[in-house]
């Protein structure tokens, strides 16, 4: 394992493409992908008390309270695989208080990717999204259709992926994003997210390669 692995945060509005890009980043850079939304959905699927409470907020498009989310993400982040291979934190932190919870633990990213997609595109991306419960892969009926009939037949839709709910999720996003960005001012890079999946990844790939090069340089000349 690298002595000082890459640490990445990725943020952006609902359906801006975070999960899709994380699959590609993970495949190329071998980082441990930690998605706050996926961790919460796993709690719901397992029927835990935290999951039950979280679902009430997720259905309203609101942030799940810190007393559920903060320790859940922290525990995952501090596991040895993430510490050794580096991490890719998706959809966390999402508020000033969550950012401060990480600051107190001295947990900071090398780079903070902010996917920038106009609102008009987000609704279409949300309502067409499907996921494969077997592989976890994210599809879109129009933009990334399933490879065959067998996969198509088993795709599922998220409970919060309706036009009405994405509007609430967007409001929540815009009311929190500014307070969050100030914390990561020196490492934020805006990525244009309204082109194809591959074009978006090409931008991210370059940014992460240059982050890695900078870290290597620092190791040589501290
Ligand atoms: P979460 O699961 O994180 O949802 P989100 O932020 O709304 O983001 P999404 O997962 O909807 O979208 P994405 O950006 O990953 O897009 P994707 O790649 O799938 O959170 C859900 C809820 O959990 C929150 O509302 C909140 O209640 C709670 N929560 C989560 N984190 C929390 C936190 N830190 N604190 C408190 N509560 C929290 O892409 C979307 C679609 O577009 C797909 O169909 C995809 O195929 C397609 N697509 C992607 N890229 C492209 C492209 N370039 N061109 C065309 N189509 C594309």
Description:
The protein is 55% helix and 14% strand. It is of the alpha/beta class and 222 residues long. The strands form two sheets. A five-stranded parallel beta sheet has the order 2-3-1-4-7, sandwiched between helices. Strands 5-6 form a two-stranded antiparallel ribbon. The two termini are 20 Å apart. The mean pLDDT is 95. BIS(adenosine)-5'-pentaphosphate (AP5) binds next to helix 1, helix 2, helix 3, helix 7 and strand 6.
Characteristics:
alpha/beta, binds BIS(adenosine)-5'-pentaphosphate, 14% strand, chloroplast, five-stranded parallel β-sheet, 222 residues, AMP kinase activity
Q: Can you list the ligands bound to this structure? A: BIS(adenosine)-5'-pentaphosphate
| Number of E strands | 7
Q: Return Rg in Å.
A: 17 Å
Mean pLDDT: 95
User: Treating each run of at least 4 consecutive H or I residues as one helix, how many helices?
Assistant: 10
What is the succession of H and E elements? EHEHHHHEHEHEEHHEH
The N- to C-terminal Cα distance equals 20 Å
Q: Tell me, briefly, the overall form.
A: globular
Q: Which percent range describes the beta-strand content? A: 5-15%
- Helix/strand-derived category reads alpha/beta
Low-confidence regions: none
In spatial order, strands of the major sheet run 2-3-1-4-7
User: Helical amount among residues, as a percent range?
Assistant: 40-55%
* Main beta-sheet annotation: 5 strands, parallel
The gist of it:
The chain is α/β, with parallel strands linked by helices. The protein contains 10 helices and 7 strands.
């Amino acid at each position: 394992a690298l002595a000082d692995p890459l640490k990445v945060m990725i943020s952006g509005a609902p359906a801006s493409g975070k999960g899709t890009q994380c699959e590609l980043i993970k495949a190329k850079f071998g980082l441990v992908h930690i998605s706050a939304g996926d961790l919460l959905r796993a709690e719901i699927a397992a029927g835990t008390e935290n999951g039950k409470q979280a679902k009430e907020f997720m259905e309203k498009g609101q942030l799940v309270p810190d007393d559920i989310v903060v320790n859940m993400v922290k525990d995952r982040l501090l596991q040895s695989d993430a510490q050794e291979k580096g991490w890719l934190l998706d959809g966390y932190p999402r508020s000033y208080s969550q950012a401060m919870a990480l600051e107190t633990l001295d947990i900071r990213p090398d780079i903070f990717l902010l996917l920038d997609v106009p609102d008009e595109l987000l609704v279409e991306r949300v309502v067409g999204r499907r996921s494969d419960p077997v592989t976890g892969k994210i599809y879109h009926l129009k933009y990334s259709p399933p490879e065959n009939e067998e996969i198509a037949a088993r795709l599922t839709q998220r409970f919060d992926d309706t036009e009405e709910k994405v509007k609430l999720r967007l409001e929540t996003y815009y009311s929190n994003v500014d307070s969050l960005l100030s914390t990561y001012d020196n490492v934020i890079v805006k990525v244009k997210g309204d082109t194809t999946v591959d074009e978006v990844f090409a931008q991210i790939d370059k940014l992460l390669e240059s982050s890695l090069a900078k870290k290597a340089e620092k190791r040589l000349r501290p």
